[in-house]
Specification:
The complex is a heterotrimer of chains A (about 600), B (about 130) and C (about 600). With about 600 residues, chain A is α/β, with parallel strands linked by helices. Helix content of chain A is about 35%, strand content about 15%. In chain A, the strands form seven sheets. In chain A, strands 2-1-7-5-6 form a five-stranded mixed sheet, with helices on both faces. A four-stranded parallel sheet of chain A has the order 14-13-16-19, sandwiched between helices. Chain A has a four-stranded mixed sheet with strand order 15-22-21-20. In chain A, α9 packs across α11 (about 340-355) and α9 (about 280-300) packs across α15. Chain C folds into five domains: about 1-105, Glutaredoxin, CATH 3.40.30; about 125-330, 3-Layer(aba) Sandwich (Rossmann fold); about 345-430, Ubiquitin-like (UB roll) (Roll); about 435-520, NADH-ubiquinone oxidoreductase 51kDa subunit, iron-sulphur binding domain (de novo design (two linked rop proteins)); about 535-590, Alpha-Beta Plaits. β6 (about 125-130) of chain B pairs parallel with β7 (about 110) of chain C, so a sheet runs across the interface.
């Protein structure tokens, strides 16, 4: 046994509690069932993410013997402490501070994209704020609005909780957002208050995911989708990413981790999509291409080819692609050249499928439902369109889809399950697990193993690749060939592995990277988790549950994938496959920034 | 400059400095040696102390008066900047405030040459650590 | 022989001019003009007993002299050599006349410890510092004392940090010493930011070596080998003199490797601050030095545990450091005798505002506000009435007449509703509107808030707006409750010292000048006549002769009236520029 953990005893609201030394009052109170309100504090313990700047000053409480009120989120418990969380002094202070915050916040709740899920709105409700004194002569801090391909910043609504800054810098190490200006005009913005588009932003959307207010929201593409659906000349097809089905239900009051695949399909069909397909199909295709590329590189490496770049880095996450283009452009030939599942799907839809149903690509509209905001940017990249016509026309987030479904008077809860359409709706369990960290590389291993060894896998679940640890590694035995696998989720973790690759220290053959903590299930386009990491874990469990129930769980066994290669592509990494399914990367450092 | 290698060294150095200052004064003209200190902190400079200091340096030379003009820090009399402290041989230092070129000229002509006090004296109103028991 | 006549503003107002001319006339009449000069001097600070005439060289100090006394002074004192007892200063305790001003307690009100070398030595010459016992304390510390002994002396001296909060210096050092680490830092906080306070700049410009010596002593005591001075970039001369001093100290081996031949090594470098007030807060200062945004973080951890680069760091301000060598040399016992029970030593104050002797003074703790303002400071300018003194920088409180006899120390100022702060003292007279004064200070904190926590970022702004609202005559009585509540909440909930003290000017003026607030909100009047929106220019019909001068000068044609008839100012049009009042030769225009 190690040394005993030191504990302290204290009283909170007349209840005694003993907690380990170093526990904050906020957490100790939580253990007692006392939920102290806060606007800035955020803690996802399983992901090792904590934001406690002590800035909002809503969580204050009275500590006996202390001159001023204590911010409970950042004050540690001490022996003999007597804490009161709801005295007149505390309640008055909390209300007054809340009035301050609201006095510098627009009151356009009725038309705010965050309305209903806004933590500030909820707090105002909770504290029973009915008026904002002095509002008639209170100056508001005003900032220029900023719209990027994925994210809208409306800093008038920023309450300086600094969660986005923590996400962008500490977790993602992207460094696009930090506090600027002083005093009343302080806000979180890119350096020199540049637009996001001119910053190092990767559009991972983690800032949006944690923003308590409407200061950071996604660009809403549902109006364009609606217009396409209403246009009789257009055939509109939709693809849904695996992580969406594990979280969409939350927006309709279902428990986190509820799988709504069938209901989601029914809803999309009801919304008027002509074909409801699955991005999992694109994922299976990605495995075929990426897996083949991996084996090819390994074989060349084993045969002594020193020019081959290892490890192979996965490339299905657009936030991650943006990140290495920005920070590791010197390594841009290391990642797999395979497009992401979204773009592979789009490429096949607008070629093979368009030909099949005899519709011009101009009249075929491909919509994707993604847990992600970077996908919005990805589908707008020039290399993913033909003569100005995008392979994927619009990408909308899980949140946007939920709103869309509600607007169409559909009650997701009461819809009968329906099946995806053929042929691009067919998928395996390998495609599904793309939604969780470690899933892509697990799916790749299932296929690469059988391709490499020619043997059948007797154990499909590579549990050693699963989990929420930020950086993980495992060695998979490819029948005598030990394959070293690295996994990182969260760009800060990815950076650690990339630094090793750059310095030549990396011992991995392949590395999977997901920009968002938890993988796509924790994506920037998912219903807000409000700091509850149980939600992330429940979504991951749902993903693996769906996989385990699938009759087919390896991408190369997907009958339509087999058919697609036979009929159209030839074989993985064929010339045609390269043309349609592979891409190249750019050095974003070289982009010229024009001063606005 | 040589390094000071011990506390004893430092003390020796201090005596040397004091002795050197003394000899320097004696070597020139002990009877007529004037010390002029101009308060040259930012505030003094802003009020014109630099010009005054240059004036003293130049005029002592021109009027053939033996003396040393040095800069020093803030004397605390902000309301009366620029301030100058004059020490005539064998006499207590006298601080003059509001020193412009005209008064600087008077200080040389009347006080330094004749020993006559002139307008603008700032009365000293503090104790030093040496006098405080 | 010289007769010094005080020409300070106070004495000037009580006919010191006439005394001067009478003395000269008397001397002329007696044919003594050649032998005795009459000199006009700056303020003696003894305005309470003015006008003053001092006879040199015998140091006779005459008080409350009248122009008629000139004859007696010349005939009795000059010619007959007899002191005039009735004009002498009488010791208030013994009631005895004091013949020689050197024995008057009055001139011992100030004691210069921190400023001991300022104005004495050439700050760019290390020799002059050494000649005044410079580096002697360091020498003794390094060769004769253990770090613990040094800390013990500082603790025993009762010295408290001069940065504002008054934390005992020795304890701070002890905590930094106790925290084990491979590297520790000594930081000198020279980010002096209080408007009107410039004692740190004066010390750095006038006596930079005292700070270097003290930092080195501190380094030895806590076990640090690196010192950093965080100095504002707006202090170029201080930076220059520090650079010169550091170079000279290096050349003498008083900084760098093996100082004074011992095995102790210590080096000091400068870090320039970009002028954010909040960087005077030690955690913000450290973040700024590390290259991060200058904003405070929650303590604990204190810098003594985890400071610069996460290492134990001792932060003291310039004035604190400047006292250290003297404490070592003179001993804790000597130092302890100065000051009050809980605040030892001296404090430097920057006197500003409506006071005659604006300047930098250093007094023992326990000196009263009255002594500082009326004796050292020479009283209120233009003979106006004293109204308030604001101590402690922008977030101190306003103290009034009733606080004048409070002995100044850390605790008494807090008890009176203000604070020591860095030692700014702004004196206000009857013409100052206290609501506007509170607004003025709030304006500063609003500008200087870092914006991290909501009460300081938004609350102070709202406080400012409400004060402005009141000054514009738009406030009502219930606003005063709101003002107080907002102030108390901002104090109670802000993250750092800036927000925790910024409402002090509001609270102290509410406490001490409630009548002025009431006048603003209820009667819509500004008693001091400072709030433009609350004043009205008015022509007294009886005094107006109809000269039209006012109407002609009015830039907005607000004044009407025929020639030789009574004029009228239209308050709706008037922009309150005051031009008419200046122009009127008949005192017909008043502010009401």
């Amino acid at each position: 046994m190690g040394k005993m953990m030191e504990t302290v005893r204290l009283t909170i609201d007349n209840k005694e509690i003993e907690v380990p030394k170093g526990t904050t009052i906020y957490k100790a109170a939580k253990q007692l069932g006392i939920e102290i309100p806060t606007l800035c504090y955020l803690h996802l313990d399983d992901l090792n993410i904590e934001n406690k700047p002590g800035g909002c000053r809503i969580c204050v409480a009275e500590v006996q013997g202390r001159r001023n009120l204590a911010p409970t989120c950042s004050t540690n418990c001490e022996n003999g402490m007597v804490v009161k969380t709801h005295t007149t002094r505390v309640l008055n202070a909390r209300r007054t501070v809340m009035e301050f915050i609201l006095s510098d916040h627009p009151t356009d709740c009725l038309v705010c994209p965050k309305s209903g899920t806004c933590e500030l709105q909820n707090m105002a409700h909770l504290l029973g704020i009915r008026e904002i004194p002095g509002a008639e002569y209170a100056e508001m801090s005003k900032y220029k609005p900023d719209t990027s391909p994925s994210i809208i910043r409306d800093l008038d609504k920023c309450i300086m909780c600094r969660r986005c800054e923590m996400m962008c810098n500490d977790v993602q190490t992207v460094g696009a957002l930090s506090a600027v200006n002083r005093g009343f005009m302080a806000a979180v913005a890119p350096a020199f208050e540049q637009n996001l588009e001119h910053s190092t932003c990767t559009y991972c959307g983690q800032c949006v995911a944690v923003c308590p207010t409407g200061a950071l929201t996604e660009v809403d593409h549902t109006p364009e989708v609606l217009r396409a659906l209403a246009d009789p000349t257009k055939t509109v097809i939709v693809q849904t990413a695996p992580a969406v089905r594990a979280a969409l239900g939350e927006a309709f009051g279902m428990a986190p981790g509820t799988l709504v695949t069938g209901k989601m399909v029914a809803a999309l069909r009801a919304l008027g999509f002509d074909y409801v397909f699955d991005t999992d199909f694109g994922a299976d295709l990605t495995i075929m291409e990426e897996g083949t590329e991996l084996l090819d590189r390994i074989k060349r490496h084993l045969s002594g080819d020193t020019t081959v770049r290892l490890p192979l880095l996965t490339s299905c996450c657009p936030g991650w692609v943006n990140f290495f283009e920005e920070y590791f452009p010197d390594l841009k030939d290391v990642p797999s050249s395979a497009k992401s599942p979204q773009q592979m799907f789009g490429a096949i839809a607008k070629s093979y499928f368009a030909e099949k149903i005899k519709v011009d690509r101009e009249n075929l509209v491909v919509v994707s439902i993604m847990p992600c905001l970077a996908k919005k940017y990805e589908c707008q990249r020039e290399e993913f369109s033909v003569n100005g016509n995008r392979d994927v026309d619009y990408s909308i987030s899980t949140r946007e889809l939920a709103a869309f479904i509600k607007q169409a008077n559909l009650d997701l809860n009461n819809l009968e399950d329906e099946e995806f359409d053929a042929p691009l709706g067919e998928s395996t369990g390998a495609g599904v697990i793309f939604g969780a960290t470690g899933g892509v590389i697990e799916a790749a291993c299932r296929t690469a193993y059988e391709m490499y060894t020619g043997k059948k896998l007797d154990r499909i679940d590579f549990t050693e690749l699963r989990g929420l640890e930020g950086v993980r590694s495992a060695t998979i035995d490819f029948d005598g060939l030990p394959l070293n696998i690295g996994i990182a989720h969260g760009l800060g973790n990815a950076r650690k592995l990339l630094d090793d690759v750059r310095s030549g220290k990396s011992q991995f053959h392949a590395i999977e990277v997901m920009a968002c903590p938890g993988g796509c299930i924790g994506g920037g386009g998912q219903p807000a988790h409000h700091g509850n990491s149980e939600i992330i874990k429940a979504r991951a469990a749902a993903i693996y549950r769906e996989d385990s129930k699938k009759p087919l769980r390896k991408s190369h066994e997907n009958p339509f994938i087999i058919k697609l290669y036979e009929e159209y592509l030839g074989h993985p990494n064929s010339e045609k496959a390269h043309h349609l399914l592979h891409t190249r990367y750019f050095d974003k450092k070289k982009k010229v920034i024009v001063k606005q | 400059m040589s390094q000071i290698k011990s506390l004893a060294d430092l003390r020796k150095k201090r005596e040397e400095i004091k002795a050197e200052m003394d000899t320097r004064i004696k070597a020139i003209d002990p009877e007529n040696h004037v010390q002029i200190k101009v308060a040259m902190a930012t505030c003094g400079i802003a009020a014109g102390a630099k010009e005054i200091m240059e004036f003293f340096v130049e005029q002592l030379d021109r009027r053939n008066i033996q003396g040393v003009v040095t800069q020093t820090g803030c004397m605390g009399y902000c309301y009366a900047e620029p301030t100058v402290e004059i020490t005539l041989p064998g006499r207590e230092p006298v601080v003059y405030g509001f020193v412009d070129l005209k008064r600087a000229d008077q200080i040389i002509e009347k006080y330094i040459k004749e020993g006559e006090l002139i307008d603008g004296i700032i009365p000293v109103n503090y104790e030093t650590i040496d006098s405080k028991e | 022989m010289h007769l010094l006549v005080c020409g300070g503003t106070g004495c000037h107002a009580s006919e010191s001019d006439a005394i001067l001319w009478n003395l000269r006339d008397e001397l002329e009449a007696k044919g003594l003009s050649d032998k005795v000069q009459v000199i006009l001097t700056g303020c003696f600070g003894f305005c309470e007993k003015g006008p003053i005439v001092k006879v040199m060289p015998d140091n006779t100090f005459y008080v409350q002299v009248k122009p008629d006394d000139a004859q007696a002074i010349v005939e009795e004192h000059i010619i007959k050599g007899r002191k005039i007892t009735r004009l002498l200063y009488h010791d208030p305790k013994t009631k005895e006349p004091v013949g020689d001003s050197k024995h008057m307690g009055f001139f011992k009100k100030q004691l210069r410890i921190v400023l001991r070398n300022c104005g004495f030595i050439n700050p760019e010459n290390i020799d002059e510092y050494i000649a005044r016992d410079g580096y002697e304390a360091l020498g003794q510390v390094l060769s004769e004392m253990t770090p613990e002994q040094v800390i013990e002396i500082i603790k025993d001296s009762g010295h408290r940090g001069r940065g504002g909060a008054g934390f005992p210096t020795g304890f701070k050092w002890e905590i930094a010493r106790r925290n084990k680490s491979d590297e520790k830092y000594v930081v000198c906080n020279a980010d002096e930011g209080d408007p009107g306070a410039f004692m740190d700049r004066s010390v750095l410009e006038g006596d930079p070596h005292s700070v270097l010596e003290a930092m080195t002593i501190c380094g030895y005591s806590i076990g640090a080998s690196k010192g950093l001075i965080y100095v504002r970039a707006e202090y170029p001369l201080a930076i220059h003199r520090l650079q010169v001093a550091i170079r000279q100290a290096h050349e003498y081996g008083l900084l760098g490797k093996n100082i004074l031949g011992t095995d102790f090594s210590f080096d000091i470098s400068l870090r320039l601050g970009a002028g954010a007030f909040v960087c005077g807060e030690e955690t913000a200062l450290i973040h700024s030095m590390e290259g991060h945004r200058g904003e405070p973080t929650i303590k604990p951890p204190f810098p003594a545990e985890s400071g610069y680069r996460g290492k134990p760091t001792n932060v003291n301000n310039v004035e604190t450091f400047a006292s250290i060598p003297v404490i070592i040399l003179k001993g804790a016992e000597w130092y302890k005798r100065i000051g009050t029970e809980k605040s030892k030593g001296t404090k430097v104050f920057a006197l500003a505002g409506k006071i005659n002797n604006v300047g930098l003074i250093e007094v023992p703790m326990g000196t009263t506000l009255r002594e500082v303002i009326f004796e050292i400071g020479g009283g209120i300018r233009n003979g106006k009435k004293f109204k308030a003194v604001q101590t402690g920088g922008p977030s101190g409180g306003c103290l009034t007449e009733k606080h004048l006899d409070v002995p100044i120390d850390f605790d008494n100022l807090v008890a009176a509703g203000s604070m020591m702060g860095s030692g700014g003292m702004i004196v206000m007279d009857e013409d100052d509107c206290m609501v506007s004064v509170a607004k003025y200070f709030l304006d500063f904190t609003v500008e200087e808030s870092c914006g991290k926590c909501s009460p300081c970022r938004i609350g102070n702004k709202r406080l400012y707006e409400l004060l402005n609202h009141i000054c514009e005559g738009k406030g009502n009585v219930s606003d005063l409750d709101r003002l107080r509540n907002m102030s108390l909440v901002i104090k109670d909930t802000s993250l750092c010292g800036l927000g925790q003290t910024s409402p002090n000017p509001v609270l102290s003026t509410l406490d001490n000048f409630m009548d002025e607030y009431i006048a603003h909100v209820r009667d819509k009047k500004c008693p001091a006549g400072k709030c433009k929106d609350l004043m009205e220019y008015y022509i007294i019909p009886e005094n107006c002769v109809g000269c039209t001068a006012c109407a002609r000068v009015c830039p907005v044609n607000a004044i009407s009236g025929e020639r030789k008839e009574i004029h009228y100012i239209n308050p709706e049009v008037c922009i309150k520029c005051g031009a008419c009042m200046e122009k009127c030769k008949f005192d017909a225009i008043i502010i009401r």
